[in-house]
Amino acid sequence: MKVLLLGGTAEARQVAALLVAEPGVEVVSSLAGRTLEARLPEGAVRQGGFGGVPGLVDWLRAESVDAVVDATHPFAATMTAHAVAATASIGLPLLVLRRPGWREKPGDRWVWVDSAAEAAAVLRSLGARAFLTIGRQGLGAFADAGVWMLARCVDAPTPRPAWCELILDRGPYELAGELDLLRRHRIDVLVTKDSGGDLTAAKLEAARKVGIPVVVIRRPLLPDGVRTVASADQVVGWLRDHR
């Protein structure tokens, strides 16, 4: 059984490690190539786009793929849409692995929005010094937000923004470090995406402890009818059922 694993996340690396050890399964992990020095999964890897739905369909046919697992980031909506359309057009089974989103806890002060632009629009009503943790894509929406900003990204945006202070770093992050960062920069509002998972969740606890509001960008909705699971083990079980 040959499996295309759309990856780039910690969960995708977990799936790849399990499938490499699974008898009778050949897995190829596909990375978009947007992150420099990305952490590579076990097994075969391809990097770069497919050329939209037609290119993905051609690749799936040429490589005689039997199933597709989408374990991309919860905000990689375009790739997921392409995977849904391509697999449906040629009748391949598709499974989407999505880590659960974050949930508010007692003491949280969350403001939910639907986009980076909406997040930027509410900043001035919430604080004067913002910490942006949304990655480099979408940062441009905050250029005219009218507050001082600190942005943390894995890779620097191009061109490098002059309107914010930039930190280049990669998780996981610990509570002590996040608390120190918030206090040292006098942050009074945090902006994040509902990425979920534990690698970057410490910032939410830190915001709770210092009592600042958090602007949370909602995840894009998955296409109707898509089968989803929440763990790497569930992916392996699903693939066994389709062999």
- Mean pLDDT equals 95
How far is the first residue's CA from the last residue's CA?
A: 7 Å
Using only CA atoms, what is the Rg?
Answer: 19 Å
Return the structural class: alpha/beta
Strand content: 15-25%
Instruction: Specify the overall morphology.
Output: elongated
Helical element count? 7
Low-confidence stretches: none
Helix-residue proportion: 25-40%
Major β-sheet profile: 6 strands, parallel
Strand order of the largest sheet: 3-2-1-4-5-12
**Overall number of strands:** 12
N-to-C order of helices and strands: EHEEHEHEEHEEEHEHEEH
Q: What topology does this entry show?
A:
Layout: E1 2-6, H1 10-20, E2 26-31, E3 44-47, H2 52-62, E4 67-70, H3 77-90, E5 94-97, E6 110-113, H4 116-122, E7 129-133, E8 148-153, E9 165-168, H5 175-184, E10 189-193, H6 202-210, E11 214-217, E12 228-229, H7 232-241
Report on the structure:
- The protein is elongated.
- The longest helix has 14 residues, at 77-90.
- A six-stranded parallel β-sheet has the order 3-2-1-4-5-12, sandwiched between helices.
- The protein is 30% helix and 22% strand.
- The chain starts with a strand and ends with a helix.
- The chain is an alpha/beta fold.
- The protein has seven helices and twelve strands.
- 32% of the residues are buried.
- Strand 10, helix 6 and strand 11 form a beta-alpha-beta unit.
